[in-house]
UniProtKB/TrEMBL annotation:
GO terms for cellular component: cytoplasm. It comes from the Bacteria. This is 2-isopropylmalate synthase. Homodimer. Keywords: Amino-acid biosynthesis, Branched-chain amino acid biosynthesis, Cytoplasm, Leucine biosynthesis, Manganese, Metal-binding, Transferase. The gene is leuA. The lineage of its organism: Bacteria, Bacillati, Bacillota, Bacilli, Bacillales. InterPro entries: 2-IPM_HCS-like, 2-isopropylmalate_synth_dimer, AIPM/Hcit_synth_CS, Aldolase_TIM, LeuA/HCS_post-cat, LeuA_allosteric_dom_sf, LeuA_bact_synth, PYR_CT. GO terms for biological process: L-leucine biosynthetic process.
Amino acid sequence: MKNINVFDTTLRDGEQTPGVNLNFEEKLQIAKQLERLGVDIIEAGFPAASKGDLRSVKEIADTVKNSSVTGLSRALTSDIDACWEALKGGAEPRIHVFLATSPIHREHKLHMTQEQVIETAVNAVRYAKERFAKVQFSAEDACRTELPFLAEVVEAVIDAGADVVNLPDTVGFIMPEEIRSMFRYIKNEVPNADKAVLSAHCHDDLGMATANSLAAVEGGAEQVECTINAVGERAGNASLEEIAVALHIRNDFYGKSTNITLNEIKRTSSLVSSLMGMQVPNNKAVVGDNAFAHESGIHQDGVLKETSTYEIITPELVGVEANRMVLGKLSGRHAFKEKIISLGYNATEEEIKKVFKSFKELADKKKEITNEDIFALMADEKAGDAMKYYSLETLQVTYGTSNIPTATVTLLDQAGERIEQAGTGSGSVEALYNTLEKIVGEGFTLHDYRIQSTTGGRDALAEVFVRMAFDDTESSGRGTDNDVLEASAKAYINAVNRVLNQRRAENQPKVANISTP
Ligand SMILES: CC(=O)SCCNC(=O)CCNC(=O)[C@H](O)C(C)(C)COP(=O)(O)OP(=O)(O)OC[C@H]1O[C@@H](n2cnc3c(N)ncnc32)[C@H](O)[C@@H]1OP(=O)(O)O
Ligand SMILES: CC(C)C(=O)C(=O)O
């Protein structure tokens, strides 16, 4: 049985999801969980994109030991240098260099001839190979590239030292039969194809990403690139959980295995969903809430008689807990600590003590504390590691069908000084946000506001995500609470603190009403 390498790009292509903006702590948390999940390669970011990206790729490369860590780079020496800066301390420095090869990209984006594309790709791979132990080259938009030219590119970059050659379906255009043939063609026609691992990277624009990735495996791909919950640019990438489980369940058909620890899938999915603020649809394959639910009588009857009548995947296989240990207000520190560890956190006693306090407060208001609640509590705790420019002290909102909604808010600033303001709006949240804006200054713009409940039930936590910008610095914020307005206030304040922290890290001198130290 042959292994298929799983290359996870949740932190790079996944972070290209519109509206998603992870901070450094969150990326590190996801990377550690991906390591637990057993992914072979973690693409941690695009170091040349920003100082923040470089820092988080570096920290992940320095921390993660059981997965190989890589970063994306254009075919430019400056991008490759940024990757080297970020990855040189890793166990096996690995770079992912890309250059588009299709006629559309050559003509309209790169303004390059075929010869220039080959020369640029080869020079970039050679330059990278002088530094990195492992070099991956991606022929962006490979699936819309003339096959004979694609074969020339592949041969040239392998000659130049590429260890892995990725043939992405950048725009989610190809059909399964075509991608299978494309991989077979490259395997058969490129004389040195056996010197490199061929990889597939599929997008889901036509809903084919998983099918195409599996067809690529049939055609000879030995690496698949994918993301948790299928997050990614536009309609997203191929879903890691679908590919890994399909290869496992249909091993009779594919005869391939992966190193994925399947029962870590559910918790990885929940963590990514919670930190990215992207709810997993109930009917999502493998990780959706309904993936193991049976609603209709005939199905229920069948499952009661023999589960395999209607269930091809057991919940336990992917880590959906069958007999969960229920955490509630009567739970003690030991059970709580056990749960934190089982969710993959490497928390200190001090952190556990602090989160335990928040857990008890929450358990007083909510009957059953779920994994999603714990993720939210831990995310709040981790967010607390950053500098708190503002924190919420009190909040009062009055709303009536015939009154103007009014909010009164008191925040504490860094020095512990109270700042109180009142304001109105056309709804409660607007009144609240207008009031908060009066306190933090007018430069902040709210781009997005989303609300969801962490679980079902009347006592579920409200989880609010906002996306905000100050000048050209964008950030997101999250707040959870039993009350939607308090969750909304917390999300706003969290986003403001994150923008201010980000600007401080980038050494920008003055922000709104606050001078950054
Ligand atoms: C298919 C994919 O998912 S590719 C990855 C996409 N991800 C991202 O773009 C996220 C990170 N990107 C960024 O932060 C920015 O785009 C940066 C820092 C990389 C570049 O920013 P800018 O210098 O302002 O350039 P901008 O993004 O506007 O344009 C891209 C430039 O790179 C060129 N380029 C694109 N791909 C490549 C490549 N693989 N190799 C070399 N040059 C490339 C484009 O032709 C364009 O060059 P031009 O300015 O000469 O026309
Ligand atoms: C950089 C490459 C691999 C990519 O993300 C794509 O082509 O979609």
